[in-house]
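Researcher: Here's my situation. A collaborator sent me these components and asked whether they could plausibly form a single complex. I don't have experimental data yet, so a predicted model of the whole assembly would be a useful starting point for our discussion.
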Amino acid sequence: MKTSITNIHVFLLLILGFNISYGQGKRNNDANTHAWKYEIEGIGTGVQGSYQVKIWSIGSSQEAVIEQAKKNAVHAIIFKGFPDNNRVKGQKPLATNPNLEQEQLAFFDEFFLNGGKYLKFVSLLANGSILPEDRIKLGKSEYKIGVIVSVNSAELRRDLENAGIIKGLTTGF
Amino acid sequence: MTKLHCLAIILMMPFLSIGQAKKPTLMVVPSDLWCKEYGYLTEFNNQGTKVLIPDYKKALQEDANLILVISKINELMADRGFPLKNLESILKSLENQSAEDALLMNNEGAEINENPIDKLKKVAKADIIIQMTYTIQSIGPKNTVTFNLQGIDSYTNKQIAGSSGTGAPSFTAEIPVLLAEAVVANIDLYNVQLQNHFDDMFENGREVILRVLTWNNWEHNLESEDFGGDMLSNIIENWVHENTVKNRFSTLDATENMMVFEQVRIPLFNEKGQATDTRRWAFNLKKYLMDKFQIESKLMMKGLGQAQLILGDK
């Protein structure tokens, strides 16, 4: 009886430990996003109303980085934009106000929740497959990975305009 | 109840429009350079001087790529809530209008009044002209498109938005595909600058030009001190100062016969909260001079953003 209780305790502790480290990993990834710890480069014009970009993110596993890349891509399109890359035209961020993220903190916290609304505007290209040269090992369990995604900027803009977060071209007319 | 609601809505309609600024009109026009490059310039004899002017009608009838580019820009702008004026439709409508005006007669055989100035003013107009240029470079089987969009404010002739660039060379894609890609790649950047222009307009007012001239048979001039002891030019300058947003304007030129005010920032709304424009704003100056000093004047518009007030007669 005593042995079985101890086993259960050990098992529960293991699960708890895994959950804590998993949660911490996600929080770290989100902190990286908010601290602009990602890089973005345009790779193609894409179909009308969307941008094809490569997002370089840092994380402890490939799966975590791929998921975070989607969040980073939407974050970048809203707040950062991306520069010209050879013949691929760069774009300005959707938010013209540089303090928008802080001013609308509650909205963006909810928007960027894991599994949140941001997922509606981003999709992985090439099924999320990563080229060997786009996977760089930085430390013992830290990777920098370049993931190619497509962001539906037209829908994203419309959504933010409808929510009153950014101004539309017709605002005031 | 429903009838009452309908009646209330109908009665409210004039007030609902208050608080909304006049939405600027936009139109895409091929640049003179494009017209020259593709052979759509036509020679015009202007009193002995040969002048080359763009033949938009011919270009629109013959160049499928031009139609494609214009229609793509229209499509993308309509998606942003800014449907554009269509150059082709405007040209057709102007032609029809001229033909109808020429045939119009009343019961006594009188024709429509039209002086040479009226004829000259019958051109396609928009608040913002999107001037478009593209060039296609072909090296062997490789095609590249260089694209340039310039937003010109018709009020001031200033470029208020722009985006340009050369796309990636392609061996396989057809020219129309490359052109459509170029429009898609450039339009968002263009719109960011357009948005900045609108933001500036809402904050600092619309930028216009005001010219004050005098008829040569008028007994006064702008240096006359017969109007309350102050020089007329000072009186006008003070009025402009008081009626501009943040008192923003600059006096470009002032002589005894004329004054030119540039960078005049007029409010988008009048004191009643109704949307206003250059002509209405300048009309207030005309009214002020008439009511206070009994000065007759003629108000004329030159383009959309240039008001011309000629003092001394109607």
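Model: Some features of this prediction you could bring to your collaborator: The first strand of chain B starts at residue 26 and ends at 30. DSSP finds nine helices and eleven strands in chain B.
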